[in-house]
Amino acid sequence: MRTGLMLLTLALTLWTAAATAQVTVRFIEPERYTDAENRFGSGVTLRVTLGEIRRIFEGLATRGLPPGRTLAIDVLDIDLAGIERPGANVPFGLRVVSDISPPRFRLRYVLTEGRRRLAAAEETVTDINFLLRASRFANGAFDHERDLLRDWFRRRIVEGRSPTN
Asked: Model's pTM, two decimal places?
C-alpha cells in the first residue's frame, strides 16, 4: 500500500512537471527593464510584474500549445502600458494609460517539437491601437499586457505567422 502511494505521488509529480514544462520563461536583466515596476515606492513591484507575466505565458501555453511542442521565451524588456504618476493614490500608485503609452515587450523565443525547431525570432511586441479593443473595458491589472501577449501568442505560436505577415 505504501509503495503504491509513493508510485502514485511520483507519477502525479512527473505528470504535473510535464504539463507545465511546455513553456520556459526567463527574464534577462529585469532590473534594466524600461518600465516593469513603480520606481517611486508605491504600486506594483518588479517581483509582482514578473510573476504576472510568467503566469500569462504559462496560461497561454497550457491552453494553446499542442502536446509535444515546447516554447522557450526570454523576456529582454518590458514597458507596461501607461505612465506612472508619482505621489498620486499613495500607497498604491497610479498609472495613467493613454494611446501614447502602449505596452511593449522585447522577446526572444524558440518553438520546438521534439528536436525540430519550428520557429525562432527576437522581436518587439507592441500595438499602438491597444485602446481600441472591446476587451479594454475590463479594469484588472495587466489587462493591456495580457491582451497584447495573447494576440502575439495566437499569431506567432498557434497560427505560425512570421513577424513580417
From this structure: 0.80
